[in-house]
Every structure is written in structure tokens, then in C-alpha cells.
Specification:
- The protein is α/β, with parallel strands linked by helices and 221 residues long.
- The protein folds into two domains: 1-44, no CATH class; 46-219, Rossmann fold, CATH 3.40.50.
- The chain is 52% helix and 8% strand.
- It is built from eight helices and four strands, in the order ααβαβαβααβαα.
- The protein has helices at 2-15, 31-42, 66-94, 115-135, 154-157, 173-185, 195-206, 209-219; strands spanning 48-51, 97-102, 140-145, 190-191.
- α4 (115-135) links the parallel β2 (97-102) and β3.
- α3 runs parallel beside α4.
- The protein starts with a helix and ends with a helix.
Length: 221
């Protein structure tokens, strides 16, 4: 809550705009209803939606916490689907909108030692691609953003900050945004920021699964 308040104050001071925030546990079943209750009270119509909330429960599947994985599925899949379902009708009224669904390089690569996370991110990419096709000839554009390792609190919270994945080619959030923003405004279907991430995904498509599995396990150590 305090962090949201600070961000609100910073944005209002720096850009001289009105900023509102909603503090909500997004994995709870009524989260979308609570968000829409606030939006309706504020009489706010949404033109931009960024589905970026997420976390990771990393490790071998038999060792990870099932409750955390269920929450991850709930947040990455159920919540994103429900919120997008409720927001898109608003955008259709004006025939304008931008939806950014944040996937991952893991959207393309099934990941031993990170099985559930990558599976949820594969859902996000498939979901985004389908919506892109549905809205392609409208003023609403759907973009799937698939970054790799990024310098945020994500890795530390998942206890993977010391893995090989987060030792090389880690991008700063500002760099990811600078690459992604103009492309999403143009309505690009897919954005993969960074040459390293592009190469990673390219080779994952042509290498045998046995090879990519071995590489993934090594990168997550």
C-alpha cells in the first residue's frame, strides 16, 4: 500500500496528472469484481491495459510448493483472462485500445525446473495471439511482450537471482519499455526485447527438446 502511495505521489508530481490506485490481492476469486467496482465508482473507461502482475515458484516439480503454483496459475491465467474479458468491451465501444500481456522467453521454451511458470506464460502468449487475430482489423491492438531476465525484484522473490539466467544479458526495465512502447502503439503482435532474447528464442525453435531441456536446467542453477 505504501509503495503504491509513493508511486501515486511521484507520478502526480512529475507529470501533473491525476493518478488513482487499487490495492487488491489479485489471486482472490473476486479481484476483478473489486477492480470494476472502483472503476465504475470513478467512472473511468480503460484505453490501455497492461497485464504484468506475476511471480515465480521455481524448482523441480516434485520439490515446489503446490499452493504457490496454484496461486501462480490463478494469477497468470484466471485473473488475466477475466480482467481482459471485462476490459475489452469498454475498448470496443470506442473502437480503440491497447492490451499488453507480459509473457516471457519461457512462453516459447518448456522449462525443466520451472515447469508451471513457463506453462502459464505459454498460455499468455497463445491467448494474446488469438485475441490479436480477433481484433486485427479494429482499433484495438493486442501485444504479447516476452522479455527475458530483467532487473526487477522478480528474481530475488523467486530466489533465482544467483542463477546463470540472471548473470548474463539481464536487461533494465527502462530498456524493455523503450523497446516495447513504440511497437505496441503500432499494434505489433509480438515484442521480444533484446538481441540475446531473440537469439534464445530462435535457437529454441530449431534445437531438439533434449538439448533445450539440458540448457534450461543449467541456466536455472
Amino acid at each position: 500500500m505504501e509503495k503504491l502511495k509513493r508511486q501515486q505521489n511521484d507520478l502526480q508530481s512529475q507529470y501533473h496528472v491525476s493518478v488513482k490506485y487499487i490495492a487488491c490481492e489479485l489471486t482472490q476469486s473476486n479481484a476483478v469484481d473489486l477492480i470494476f467496482e472502483k472503476l465504475n465508482n470513478w467512472q473511468v473507461s480503460v484505453d490501455f491495459l497492461v497485464n504484468n502482475a506475476g511471480f515465480n515458484e521455481c524448482g523441480l516439480f516434485t520439490d515446489t510448493d503446490m499452493e504457490q503454483e496454484m496461486k501462480m496459475i490463478d494469477l497468470h491465467i484466471r485473473f488475466v483472462t477475466q480482467l481482459t474479458k471485462r476490459i475489452l468491451p469498454m475498448m470496443k465501444k470506442n473502437n480503440y485500445g491497447r492490451v499488453v500481456n507480459v509473457g516471457s522467453t519461457g512462453s516459447f521454451i518448456p522449462s525443466p525446473s520451472d515447469a508451471v511458470y513457463s506453462a502459464t506464460k505459454a498460455y499468455i502468449m497463445s491467448f494474446s495471439n488469438a485475441l490479436y487475430g480477433e481484433f486485427k482489423r479494429t482499433g484495438i491492438k493486442i501485444t504479447s511482450l516476452c522479455p527475458g531476465a530483467t532487473e526487477t525484484e522478480f528474481a530475488a522473490k523467486a530466489n533465482i537471482q544467483d542463477t546463470l539466467l540472471f548473470k548474463y544479458a539481464v536487461m533494465k526495465p527502462d530498456s524493455v519499455v523503450e523497446i516495447a512502447y513504440p511497437k505496441l502503439m503500432k499494434g505489433k503482435r509480438l515484442v521480444i526485447p533484446g538481441i540475446y532474447n531473440k537469439l534464445l528464442i530462435f535457437f529454441s525453435k530449431i534445437l531438439p527438446v533434449g538439448v533445450t531441456n539440458s540448457l534450461t536446467i543449467t541456466m536455472m542453477k
